[in-house]
Amino acid sequence: MQTLARTSENNCRVIDLIGWAEKHFLSKGLENGRNTVEILLQHLLDCKRVDLYFGSEKQLTQDTIKTFHSWIQRLIKNEPLQYITGTIEFYGLELMITPAVFIPRPETERVVEIALQILKTVISPKILDVGTGSGCIAIALANELPEASVTGIDIDPNMLKIAQKNADLHKINNIIFKQMDIQKEIPKESYNLIVSNPPYIPLNEMS
Ligand SMILES: C[S@@+](CC[C@H](N)C(=O)[O-])C[C@H]1O[C@@H](n2cnc3c(N)ncnc32)[C@H](O)[C@@H]1O
């Protein structure tokens, strides 16, 4: 890969990096290059999209350029953008994710919308989220319904650690997470609504 440092003799502004990366993505046949570059830079520089352009003449450090190049390499090797940045936006909340966690899909936001519709007239609902993963559905519901009590269960304790971190990140207190294998155990309490985005990839197709 031709590096940006070589093309610009070590002087590199935000706008140079955006232009270079967009062209580089195009040459690799990757679509939405500019959008992807902007997301990477927002995380790298810890700023909003608009600030990239207000600060487009800002000189970048060699460390920043190096990290950016390594992120581009990971993308080209098909690593999901969300695992590189370590975050995803779900129902208006920024959630932390790691490669141990299923990446919440945009269409899963529909589950939240339908749940909110169903619970519209229920006062202080009790909600169970089976296979909570990053906690995305449970946390979005707990955030939208502060009077609700939400329980997220998952078979995998690593998922639950991330889910709890995400709840803490947004200071959501009306939620608890429990380790439970739904195929072996049935929650003892009763709930107004049970939501789930269960595993749908056959085990033999998972890498
Ligand atoms: C497709 S992911 C969905 C994660 C999250 N709800 C979402 O929508 O992004 C399915 C989740 O179910 C969990 N899971 C799989 N088998 C389970 C079981 N027997 N009992 C409880 N959770 C299980 C997995 O660990 C995984 O986190």
Q: What features would you describe in this structure?
A:
- This protein is of the alpha/beta class and 207 residues long.
- Helix content is 43%, strand content 14%.
- It contains 9 helices and 6 strands; from the N terminus they run ααααααββαβαβαββ.
- It has helices at residues 4-8, 14-27, 33-45, 49-54, 62-76, 81-85, 109-118, 136-144, 157-169, and strands at 87-90, 93-96, 126-130, 149-154, 175-179, 193-196.
- It has a 4-stranded parallel beta sheet, with helices on one face. Strands 1-2 form a two-stranded antiparallel ribbon.
- Strand 3, helix 8 (136-144) and strand 4 (149-154) form a beta-alpha-beta unit.
- Helix 2 (14-27) packs across helix 3 (33-45), helix 3 (33-45) crosses helix 5 and helix 7 (109-118) packs across helix 8 (136-144).
- The model is unreliable at 5-9 (pLDDT under 50).
- It binds S-adenosylmethionine.
- S-adenosylmethionine (SAM) is lined by residues 102, 104, 108, 130-134, 136-137, 153-156, 159, 180-183, 197-199.
- S-adenosylmethionine binds next to helix 8 and strand 4.
